[in-house]
Amino acid sequence: MRLVNVPMRRVLGAPFTTPLGKRLMLATITGRRTGTIYRQPLSYVQDGDVLLTPGGGRWTLNLVDGPAVPIRLRGRDIVARPELVSDPEEVQQLLARIAAANPGARRFIAIPADASGRFEEAPLQAAIRHGFRIVRWHPETASP
Length: 144
Known about the structure:
The protein is an alpha+beta fold. Helices cover 24% and strands 33% of the residues. It contains 3 helices and 7 strands, in the order H-E-E-E-E-E-E-H-H-E.
């Protein structure tokens, strides 16, 4: 993914919307220990007034609830406050919303689903124990 992220950062950082911007955004995240700034391409779905992102990568270790994060969304700069969701039932519900809005997202979520499409409880809870979260982004303003 590192190699793919390099051109994605350029495309998503453009001052205009692109086809990739319908499913991907660019978050600027500051390392909690080093202060290093990371520009991370993230998949998202719109859910009412918030954006939902499955957060299984190491980038979520640098997020905390509360402080706003600069985001490039559809060619525009905004700031959004991350809310890290780890409650298993709420994660289950939010994953279902993500999968319904973007069926292709299931390929990147390494949690098996049962015949009804519900994510299996044991693997979901194991993923959460190992750091999997849903990030619910609350947009705050039109510019950082």
